[in-house]
Amino acid sequence: MINRGKRGLARCLIEKLLACQITNDDFVNAYPCREKKDRVIVAIYDRLWGFWDDNQTHTLTGKHELNPEAGALFERCIAFLNSDLEYEWPPLEWRRLSQAFLRLIGLRRIADSRGDEWTRQVRKIGKWEVWPFIREEDLARSAVRSHKVS
Predict the structure, then answer these.
(1) Contact yes or no for 126/89 (Cβ under 8 A)
(2) Cβ(119)–Cβ(63) under 8 Å?
(3) Which of 29, 37, 53, 107 could pair with 102 in a Cys bridge, judged by C-beta atoms 3.0 to 4.6 Å apart?
């Protein structure tokens, strides 16, 4: 189910964070991360969470500036939130938490092998490189549509 209002809010916040108009704390405090019906909203929050420091307030400048790959991820998130597509990926959070736990207790090889298995499974579902889209065609259509609107 698509929640157009929450998607619009999430998109606006990501755009402002990306443009360095708001801080990480502003983003976290305003982001609708409790949305349950439109799964992409929480999935995007979970995926982008690693791009800021929880211990200090900052914008995405200086040592927090995004590299081109991360910037592309943020742009894909914005494009997806503008789309009318349903989110099709499986939940991400358990993978991240279980692997972090295994690494924490010194079982890095097991964590890496589980990560490799998860990656193989994900590649059967869709093209990870275009996440949160699942197919390149969906991303391409979304990009064309956003250029027509602009």
Answers:
(1) yes
(2) no
(3) 107
